[in-house]
Amino acid sequence: MPKILLIAGDATEDLEFFYPYQRLLEEGYEPRVAAPSRKKLQFVVHDFVDSFDTYIEREGHSWPSDLALSEVDPDEYAALVLPGGRGPEYLRNDADYRRVVTHFFDADKPVAHICHAAVSLAPLGVLKGRRTAAYPACAPDVEMGGGVFVDGSAVVDGKVVSARAWNDHPDWMRAFMKVLREHAPANG
Question: Domain DJ-1/PfpI: where (predicted)?
């Protein structure tokens, strides 16, 4: 059973963590959760209110990380999933986060990212020349990172599958599962 790495931190978007985590289990993969340290992570829920110009944030579920980013040997993993939320804002400052994420892009392994995960990818240079979805407010980050922002629910660029936010889950995960089945089959 291939292992898939999910990187999360406190304030990761609840739905953007649990939906792919559970889909990977359903497909026969072994998801492993890495964070800056081994700890119980506190997720958040972003929601939309008619009177607000942006989203609001509420406390979400908590979930333990399996290992610290410093313990991750990216060669052991077939693919990477990066949820959004506010977590990527500080994860991008972690040297081990940068080491691990860059490995997946350099090795041309499957990567799924959604929403604000793009703000952690742009500074790494891994979006350069790529078509990439993200939460629309992150379009400037994608473009400053050399990427081409696409306002879509499942943007596939090679082995990288991206989406705007949690309401894109069905399209995003359907596309990512297709990439995984082709390049890292659960039975293979």
Answer: 3-178
